[in-house]
Specification:
Layout lengths: L1 H14 L11 H16 L6 H8 L28 H15 L7 H16 L51 E4 L12 E3 L4 E6 L2 E6 L5 E6 L7 E6 L5 E6 L3 E6 L4 E7 L5 E7 L2 E6 L3 E6 L6 E6 L5 E6 L5 E6 L4 E5 L14 E3 L6 E7 L2 E9 L5 E6 L4 E7 L4 E7 L4 E6 L6 E5 L4 E6 L6 E6 L5 E6 L3 E6 L5 H10 L13
Family: Belongs to the WD repeat CDC20/Fizzy family.
GO molecular function: anaphase-promoting complex binding; ubiquitin ligase activator activity
Keywords: Repeat, WD repeat
Length: about 500
């Protein structure tokens, strides 16, 4: 019986049937008493009601300001929450409980018992009860209301943070005919100069196409019909063109005056690759030898590099002029140091020599923004693009393209790598560097792509293929603002070898 009596006592306490004597006055009671007091004061003897009301009223406008007031919302300037009697009773009980001393003995057991009783009697824990509860939806702003508040923070993407997508056309911007082009994988038959002139070798002739004007010029033609052009390479300044021939000679031409300056004979077989480093012209031959020519002096042949056992079909100097990369039909990639003045002291040993490729290595490209990075591509038996670190000698990454690789080129405007392919895809692929993820594929040639080159502004690539066509792809256009800033920084420089060739 004592247990039931205790339950009845707890139930009566939680129901709050009896008023709490020592509880503070409720808010509605305080508000009512204050309004009654102000009303009595306003009607006190000696003061009129009108004067009292006008004096207690808040001025409608701030003195000294004539701004329009913000229109008030329907039903008042704030949203009054809904308060039922049960919530007010619970709030009064919680406020009373705060004033009671806390019993530190057996606090845990008491709180658990109170929680259990509250859940069984009220359906919720009284400790978690809310004093005020907001319900319903706010009213809509009246018509004509203007919000003058400024947005300080927004989670939406701003225009600056929105990533701009680049459109790459799958069709070439222009197609040029290249009749009598030799469909030979090991030759390097065209090059684009810094003066925006494209040189292409068609059998035993060299033609120049001015990309800015569209003019075509026949530069030279070999005397014997059975001879043919094997390689072309412009100087850095774009004034002179080196031409390798099938009879083992290297000719040097002044393009502006259309005059042959000299013919250098040192190789015993055709010269299939050429590369410039200031006044030093390097040439690779079918014999496997690489010759350095100093075009300033009469005795031009200054050094020979012995590292390949078969034809040297790829030859590229690094942008900083420190290393020469060579690729051959013997599947080797070699890196050679720059020849110093007084070449007798040079031992002619390669810095690196890699044999990971399983096919002929014609495609070579140095990274313009990382001078120690070299990209190489293998032929039909290999089909891999390999990225090398010359300083450490390690292969950074390797990718199987499933197609013969005939040429590689870095595109600095977007830091991408472009590869030209023969069998079986006969296409051009743009890769993101260094991840080597595919960005775009350029298809259109009907035969294998033999070589590719980059325009002076690095916005367009030109490809030549066995279908006797040259196709221009505008894939790397830069922002016009950045382009103007870059053009201002570029200054015209005179040729290093202008006065020294003889």
């Amino acid at each position: 019986m004592a247990q039931f009596g205790f339950e009845n006592d707890i139930h009566s306490i939680l129901k709050l049937d009896m008023p709490i004597t020592n509880a503070p006055m409720a808010r509605w009671q305080r508000k009512a008493s204050s309004s009654n007091t102000s009303a009595l004061n306003g009607l006190s003897p000696g003061k009129s009601a009108n004067v009292s009301l006008s004096s207690s009223k808040t001025p409608s406008k701030t003195p000294g300001k004539n701004k329009k007031q913000t229109p008030s919302k329907m039903g008042g300037d704030r949203f009054i929450p809904v308060r039922n009697s049960k919530q007010m009773d619970v709030a009064s009980f919680l406020l009373t409980k705060e004033n009671e001393p806390v019993d530190t003995n057996n606090t845990t057991g008491t709180s658990e018992n109170q929680k259990a009783w509250s859940m069984s009697l009220n359906g919720y824990n009284i400790e978690d009860a809310k004093i005020l509860h907001l319900g319903g939806k706010p009213l809509n702003a009246p018509e004509g209301y203007q919000n003058n508040l400024k947005v300080l923070y927004s989670q939406g993407a701003t225009p600056a943070s929105t990533k701009k997508t680049r459109y790459i056309s799958s069709t070439p911007e222009r197609i040029l005919d290249a009749p009598e082009l030799r469909n030979d994988f090991y030759l390097n038959l065209f090059d684009w100069s810094s003066r925006n002139i494209l040189a292409v070798a068609l059998h035993n002739s060299v033609y120049l196409w001015d990309a800015s004007q569209g003019d075509i010029t026949l530069l030279m033609k070999l005397e014997r019909e059975e001879d043919y052009i094997c390689s072309l390479s412009w100087t850095k300044e774009g004034s002179y063109l080196a031409i390798g021939t099938s009879d083992g000679k290297v000719q040097l031409w002044d393009v502006e005056n259309q005059k042959r300056l000299r013919s250098m004979a040192s190789h015993t077989a055709r010269v299939g690759s050429l590369s410039w480093n200031d006044y030093v012209l390097s040439s690779g031959s079918r014999s496997g030898h690489i010759h350095h020519h100093d075009v300033r002096v009469a005795d031009h042949h200054i050094f020979t590099l012995h590292g390949h056992s078969q034809e040297v079909c790829g030859l590229k100097w690094s942008p900083d002029g420190r290393y020469l990369a060579s690729g051959g039909n013997d599947n080797l990639v070699c890196v050679w140091p720059r020849v110093q003045e007084g070449s007798a002291s040079n031992d002619g040993q390669s810095v690196r020599c890699w044999s990971e490729h399983q096919g002929a290595v014609k495609a070579l490209a140095w990274c313009p923004w990382q001078p120690n990075i070299l990209a190489s591509g293998g032929g039909t038996s290999d089909r891999h693009i390999r990225i090398w670190n010359v300083n450490s000698g390690s292969c950074i990454s390797s990718l199987d393209t499933q197609s013969q690789i005939s040429s590689l080129m870095f595109a600095p405007n977007y830091k991408e790598l472009v590869s030209a392919h023969g069998y079986a895809h006969n296409n051009v692929v743009i890769w993101k560097y260094p991840s080597l993820t595919r960005v775009a594929e350029l298809a259109g040639h009907e035969d294998r792509v033999l070589s590719l080159t980059l325009s002076p502004d690095c916005s367009t690539i030109a490809t030549v293929a066995g279908d006797e066509t040259i196709r221009l792809w505008k894939c790397f256009e830069v922002d016009p603002v950045k382009k103007k800033a870059k053009d201002r920084m570029v200054k015209s420089t005179s040729s290093v070898i202008h006065q020294s060739i003889r």
